[in-house]
Amino acid sequence: MMLTVAIALAALSGTSLAHGGVTSYLIDNKNYTGYVWYDPYESQHDLIQRSWHMNPLSDPASTNLTCNNKGLAVPGTFHASVTAGSTIRATWLTPDGYGWPHTLGPMVAYMASCGEDCTTITDTSSLKWFKIAEEGLRAGYAVGEEDGWYQNDLWENRRTEYWNVTVPAGLKPGRYMIRHEIIMLELNPVQFYPNCAHLEVGGEGDSVPSDEFLVTFPGAYSLKDPGIAISGKVRGDKTTKNYTVPGPKVWKGE
Ligand SMILES: *[C@@H]1O[C@H](CO)[C@@H](O)[C@H](O)[C@H]1NC(C)=O
Ligand SMILES: *[C@@H]1O[C@H](CO)[C@@H](O)[C@H](O)[C@H]1NC(C)=O
Ligand SMILES: *[C@@H]1O[C@H](CO)[C@@H](O)[C@H](O)[C@H]1NC(C)=O
Ligand SMILES: *[C@@H]1O[C@H](CO)[C@@H](O)[C@H](O)[C@H]1NC(C)=O
Ligand SMILES: [Cu+2]
């Protein structure tokens, strides 16, 4: 117990320990364990999630931004079945019970059509992503107020360790990559924490997003975007009460 507290405090105060990513997904009542970043790639198999490392990414122009470094599919990787309109619950929780360590900044989720098969895609930078959900600054809060951000809710023992996003009900069935991302605005340079996984969407939908909703990673973000340029200046800012989440508008599936 004391050890857990000590580790949590150490991780909070030290920036090098204080990182992470999506560790499991709950999809249509099935729990899909994620890639374990501190275990060797060779030891992992049968996951929907691509490989990742806990370290932050800071260059919006790097191919590392797409699916977290190389974001490789593991042997036996597959697509998780999900019905359009269902909730996907992503958890940021390590096996030792230690959760997401940062508080200030938005959370976003994207999907991209894989065509025939997500599992065989090696170059994820050609995928066309559409945003399905975002958690920006809550109304009435300033950017420096932790309670203004859902990211703060993820903090261990604070309120919750997960984020629910809904697969747009109108989305056409097919195979899609999902990309969750936490953007940490505490420091300059900014820190991006993306994670990718494979989905097989079923249901009755027949919609696909039009071009105005589609972006690539890298490509979607610039260090000049207001919601990124502000990184390193939010802590202590009790006056800025607007925040523009980077990337395209959320596609609602219509
Ligand atoms: C899903 O599995 C992970 C890893 O085994 C576990 O930490 C988590 O508690 C599980 N979640 C649910 C909802 O069962
Ligand atoms: C991607 O990240 C890895 C590991 O941090 C680094 O060695 C590599 O140079 C990065 N590649 C690019 C294109 O930024
Ligand atoms: C998130 O989804 C789970 C089911 O996957 C549900 O039990 C939980 O109440 C949802 N939480 C919120 C905050 O919507
Ligand atoms: C807040 O709004 C102002 C005025 O529209 C804009 O210039 C600024 O970039 C916005 N700030 C953020 C962080 O989005
Ligand atoms: Cu960190």
From TrEMBL:
Major location (coarse): secreted
Enzyme's top EC category: oxidoreductase
Keywords (A to Z) from UniProt: Carbohydrate metabolism, Cellulose degradation, Disulfide bond, Hydrolase, Polysaccharide degradation, Secreted, Signal
What highest taxon heads this organism's lineage? Eukaryota
Q: Which reaction is the catalytic activity of this chain?
A: [(1->4)-beta-D-glucosyl]n+m + reduced acceptor + O2 = 4-dehydro-beta-D-glucosyl-[(1->4)-beta-D-glucosyl]n-1 + [(1->4)-beta-D-glucosyl]m + acceptor + H2O
Q: Which residues form the signal peptide?
A: 1-18
State the Gene Ontology BP annotations.
cellulose catabolic process
Which Gene3D superfamilies does the UniProt entry name for this protein? 2.70.50.70
EC assignment: 1.14.99.56
What positions does the domain Auxiliary Activity family 9 catalytic occupy? 19-231
Name the cofactor(s).
Cu(2+)
Question: Could you confirm whether the keyword Signal appears in this record?
Answer: yes
GO CC annotations, alphabetized: extracellular region
Q: Output one GO MF annotation.
A: cellulose binding
Q: Where in the cell is it found?
A: Secreted
| Keyword Repeat belongs to the record | no
Q: Which residues cross the membrane?
A: none
| Entry domain remark | Has a modular structure: an endo-beta-1,4-glucanase catalytic module at the N-terminus, a linker rich in serines and threonines, and a C-terminal carbohydrate-binding module (CBM).
Query: What role is this protein assigned?
Result: Lytic polysaccharide monooxygenase (LMPO) that depolymerizes crystalline and amorphous polysaccharides via the oxidation of scissile alpha- or beta-(1-4)-glycosidic bonds, yielding C1 and/or C4 oxidation products. Catalysis by LPMOs requires the reduction of the active-site copper from Cu(II) to Cu(I) by a reducing agent and H(2)O(2) or O(2) as a cosubstrate.
Task: Indicate what this protein is called per its UniProt record.
Answer: AA9 family lytic polysaccharide monooxygenase
What's the source species for this entry?
Paraphaeosphaeria sporulosa
